[in-house]
Amino acid sequence: MAPLRSYDAFAKPIDGIRERSVAGGYITLFALGSAFVLLLSQVIVQLQITTRHSMHLADSAPSLLFANLIGHDKKAKALVGHHIPLRLHVTFPHLDCASLDYSHDGNSMSSGAFGHYHKSPFAFSTRKPTAQEYLRATVPDDDVGAEKGKKRSAEVDARRSGGCTLLGTLHVPRVGGTLSVSVSPDAWRRATSFLSFGVGPGSPDPFAGRLPNVTHYVHDLTFGAPFPPGINPLAGARHVMDNGSGVALAAVSVKLVPTTYVRTFHAARETYQASVSRHIVQPETLASQRSTMLPGLLITYDFTPLAVRHVESRENWLVFLSSMVGIVGGVFVTVSAVSGCLVDSVQAVAKKID
């Protein structure tokens, strides 16, 4: 062990030779305070999340036609994992459920014509709206909850009204499409017949001699898994048909950006960000363009060819550890060097004075 003493880089001075002073104590306290502040700032930096964005071409998805051709082949079906859930929650406060129809890419639920679908893709349910749903659909957001009596009144109106809430999930392929929730063709024919001729096709007028009011409130509309850092621009939208007749078409156009969301210590999540534009198509425009669309809600969506990778991460813990060691050692070495220079300077000046 004796030869190792010659390599000792941390030789300890003899206690009797060391001289302690008040100035040295102040310098030590200053060094400790500086090291503590720097360490605290390093911990804060370590806890902060760094976000990086990158763009790349989105993976191509098999078309709906290809998915139809593979039929029930299990091996081929394994290649088609490109369907995403479309969740919809919407309330029509002035229409009963019997007067509503919904369709996807022209395949209507009421007609039973699903074309290229092997089975019904719809997993929606209809029911009367709750008091809260009715309140959201009929009262502006600024006034919701402003008065206690308003909710009680809404509960009474919800019981008496023939409103309808549509809630459910539709699994759609990753190709563009349309989803509509509108007045059913049969109810529309009966309403127009009563208005035009005063008679209906064998059944009473469900709208009491008026056109159907398709004002509605979209509680939620989500494509795939939600994107946690963002706000869903499709949810919480009220489309009020205030043209006097209550008849119009709320056209919502959605551009979906495939997004991979990666968090520290979490598996990557495939999500979608939505860019939305919406406008109300008045009945005069529908008539002038000879549109076959019925009043209600029309959602047109498409997928962009570019995808986004959103990565949230923290600094590597090895970098953090090395920074802490460097801070402690650097502070004391720097303070020691500065204090040594000051002491030597003071001693040199004192000698010249003497």
UniProtKB/TrEMBL annotation:
Phylogenetic placement of the source organism: Eukaryota, Sar, Stramenopiles, Ochrophyta, Bacillariophyta
Protein name per UniProt: Endoplasmic reticulum vesicle transporter C-terminal domain-containing protein
Endoplasmic reticulum vesicle transporter N-terminal domain location: 4-101
Pfam families (UniProt xref): COPIIcoated_ERV, ERGIC_N
Coiled coil: none
Protein's cellular compartments: Membrane
Domain of life: Eukaryota
Keyword Membrane included in the entry's annotation: yes
InterPro entries: Erv (IPR045888), Erv_C (IPR012936), Erv_N (IPR039542)
Primary location recorded for the protein, binned into one broad class: membrane
PANTHER family: ENDOPLASMIC RETICULUM-GOLGI INTERMEDIATE COMPARTMENT PROTEIN (PTHR10984), ENDOPLASMIC RETICULUM-GOLGI INTERMEDIATE COMPARTMENT PROTEIN 3 (PTHR10984:SF25)
Keyword annotations: Membrane, Transmembrane, Transmembrane helix
